[in-house]
Amino acid sequence: xxxxxxxxxxxxxxxxxxxxxxxxxxxxxxxxxxxxxxxxxxxxxxxxxxxxxxxxxxxxxxxxxxxxxxxxxxxxxxxxxxxxxxxxxxxxxxxxxxxxxxxxxxxxxxxxxxxxxxxxxxxxxxxxxxxxxxxxxxxxxxxxxxxxxxxxxxxxxxxxxxxxxxxxxxxxxxxxxxxxxxxxxxxxxxxxxxxxxxxxxxxxxxxxxxxxxxxxxxxxxxxxxxxxxxxxxxxxxxxxxxxxxxxxxxxxxxxxxxxxxxxxxxxxxxxxxxxxxxxxxxxxxxxxxxxxxxxxxxxxxxxxxxxxxxxxxxxxxxxxxxxxxxxxxxxxxxxxxxxxxxxxxxxxxxxxxxxxxxxxxxxxxxxxxxxxxxxxxxxxxxxxxxxxxxxxxxxxxxxxxxxxxxxxxxxxxxxxxxxxxxxxxxxxxxxxxxxxxxxxxxxxxxxxxxxxxxxxxxxxxxxxxxxxxxxxxxxxxxxxxxxxxxxxxxxxxxxxxxxxxxxxxxxxxxxxxxxxxxxxxxxxxxxxxxxxxxxxxxxxxxxxxxxxxxxxxxxxxxxxxxxxxxxxxxxxxxxxxxxxxxxxxxxxxxxxxxxxxxxxxxxxxxxxxxxxxxxxxxxxxxxxxxxxxxxxxxxxxxxxxxxxxxxxxxxxxxxxxxxxxxxxxxxxxxxxxxxxxxxxxxxxxxxxxxxxxxxxx
Length: 697
Ligand code: ADP
Ligand code: MG
Known about the structure:
Elements: H1 2-37, H2 44-53, E1 56-61, H3 67-77, E2 86-91, H4 94-108, E3 116-120, E4 123-125, E5 132-136, H5 137-146, E6 153-158, H6 166-181, E7 186-191, H7 196-202, E8 208-211, E9 218-222, H8 230-244, E10 249-253, H9 257-272, E11 280-286, H10 292-295, E12 306-312, E13 325-330, E14 333-340, E15 345-352, H11 355-363, E16 371-375, H12 379-385, H13 400-408, H14 425-437, H15 449-456, H16 461-472, H17 476-487, H18 500-508, H19 517-530, H20 535-541, H21 545-564, H22 577-588, E17 592-595, E18 600-603, E19 609-612, E20 627-635, E21 639-646, H23 649-655, H24 673-684
Parallel strand pairs: 1-7, 1-8, 2-5, 2-6, 3-5, 6-7, 9-16, 10-12, 10-13, 11-12, 13-16, 19-21
Antiparallel strand pairs: 3-4, 14-15, 17-18, 17-20, 18-19, 20-21
Helix pairs in contact: 3-4, 5-6, 13-14, 13-15, 15-16, 16-17, 16-22, 17-19, 17-21
The structure holds adenosine-5'-diphosphate and magnesium ion.
């Protein structure tokens, strides 16, 4: 009898297995059918023919036409990878690289990381087998440092070129050059309709291959008067659409994670009270830091009788295509990086989008049928206030990192580098000056040994310098940990509203001895390691396990790189924290401030009024240290220093003697700010490194 039961069980299991295989086969068939409905499919042969005939092609097509997911597959199927060379497809956004690679692996019926993989900073999901490699543009740039002829690749697709990220812009200049001496390399520049002519001109009149779009009419609605609070207006609009409009999903553009989380919470609260007559509203957030496993949710169709609302950052503008969107709600803002070469600060600011962006956003609603776009700004503001196009990132960023990479590639003459749009010379000069101050360049503008080591580390030059300097102070282990924590994201701690005080106290524990936030990060990591990566430990200390795991991954990769640049791994064994703080100062000596009157600080270099960020352990200290070094400035209503550590002014003379002189550092704490402000400002005027030495800029 027992055998009979076992037999039935076995049968059941085999049945289940059979069902599973059937389901898989069905899904595959469905996916293959879907592929054939994409606009690019009809042009497959024509496109392959054009690629065979030309070395460089500009591919233009509406978002969702299948450029990113299909073209690499076509090339793979057509034998472009048969010689063992890979296809690279670059994306400006991390999320897009992962999500698209996952989709393509699914379509090809392979495991992600095998034939299809992705590579982003600190995360390599590829293998020996990988033939189609999605990667961030920054990663390809990094690979370029080690492989200037791009020999592993037979095809390079610079995708989303219209986004004009810094790395994409630099890549365009580099691949243009490589294509000249590698006639076997195929180059595709792909863009969502904008800028095609510009790219074609840049690549010596390369042919433009247009994939005709399938775009339905989109009805555009404007608000009559400007909205005082676009978040409120957005919530109201979404709810109203949900209650009054026929089926179809909604896409709402917001500026960042925090805003998305706020709106998500409000929407959840407000829909709870809607009663059972109104359909369910499924809320799907998407932003860069959203855990990968949650990101796929935006692609899942809503259950029958329910409506999906996607709360997205700019990422849904062109990088990701979500099917089934009929309504777009566009407040008209996005967060952009903005840099002032004069003061050397880079801040993220919420700014009005460009006309081009607004049109792209509207277009998201007209992909599968007629759509509607609700703009939460006036028609007048669209016509009169918005710029035509977004300024390329290279013209509004700190270029130190880019210049360092270019120098490491042996490109010395930055002025003659082939930029699509050259950066302002003021910005280039500033970058050279910064790198000189960091000791990465000598006075002739040539890369030093320090600079070469810094360039190997995929970090901001200041952080890279702190690591290189840690060798001298015998604390590379500690600084490596701090750098990994800083790179793992800002969400180290969480603070549930109902237990805010307990969370604050738990956090304060890491600041014991008030050696500063950098050392606190070190303490968090060390204790987490000691706990055996315990989830309970994380919960007890209100620490985000995800951030910790990421920090560990980052650390492992940095360890390997340290070996490569031959920086000895040494620990000051928890004893000499001054050594750690000195190393940090060696990288961040530009980011220093002096306490002025109660509560605020003045930056040493630029004399800006800055505050200690409320999240800092220093925020609760009394009295606060007179001199501090900080990781970055965050601008909200005021400018806040994030990650703050006390320093001794004499360190500045030690770590940056060419940057600070003694008389810069002894401005007395004034009673009347105003008079002193001017006096001290003059005292701080110092001779800049002689820029005439800086050759051809
Ligand atoms: P393009 O690059 O031209 O904007 P894509 O190749 O990214 O177009 O997208 C083509 C289609 O593939 C989209 O319409 C969408 O249906 C599907 N798709 C893309 N990425 C995913 C994903 N991660 N999950 C599910 N479907 C996806
Ligand atoms: Mg795409």
